[in-house]
Amino acid sequence: MNAIAPLGLWLQVSIWSMVQRAQPLPIAVLVILLLFSIASWAIIFSKWSVFRRVRMANARFLRAFRKANGMEQVAAASEHYRPCPLAAVFDFGYEEVTRQIKVRGTIGNKVALERTLQLGISEEITKLERNMSWLATTASVTPFIGLFGTVWGIIDAFQGLGLAGSASLRAVAPGISQALVATAMGLAAAIPAAIFYNHFGHVIKEIGARMEDFALEFLNVSERSFEE
Fold it and tell me: Which of 3, 16, 26, 44 is a good FRET partner for 122, with 20 to 30 A between their CA atoms?
C-alpha cells in the first residue's frame, strides 16, 4: 500500500508535466476531450437519477391504476405521480376516451384510441432518449480526436528528432509520451460513454415495453368500463 501511493503521485506529476510541455494544438485536443468527458458524465448522472425516479413513479402509478374503482379516480390522482411515463400515456388515452364518450356516449373508435396511446408512448420515449445522442457521439468521436492528437504529437516529436540530428530513443521518447496522453484521454472519455449509452438504451427499451403493456391494459379497462 505504501508503494502504490507514491506511484500514483508520480504518475499524476509526470502526466501533468507532459501536459505543461505540450504544444498549443495538443493542449486544445486535451481540452476538447476534457469537455466531452465532463458533459458525458453530467448526462450519465442526470439520466441515472431520472430513470430511477421514473421506475419508482411507474410502479406506484400502476398499483394505483389497478386498485382504482374507475378511470375518473385515476385521472384525479395522476398529477401526484410525476415524472411518470405511464401517467402521461394514461392522460393521452383518457382524453381520447372522454372525447368519444361526449360525442357518442361510448367508445366507438377503438383504432383512434390505440393511435392516441401510441402517440403518448412515442412522446415519452422521445423524452427519455433526450441527450442520449451526446453519449453516442462521445463514444464514437473522442477516440478519433485522441488519435488525431497522438498522431500530431508523434509527427512533432519526429520533426524535433530530425532537427536535433539524434536517433536515440531518449530524444524522441518524451514527445511520444506526450502524444499518447491524448489517446488515453480519448479512451477515458469514450469507454464510460459507450457503456452507459448501451445500459440506458436497455433501460429505455424496458420502460417502453412497460408502456406498451400498460396501453393494452388501458384498452381492456376502457372496453369494460364504457362498453356499448
Answer: 44
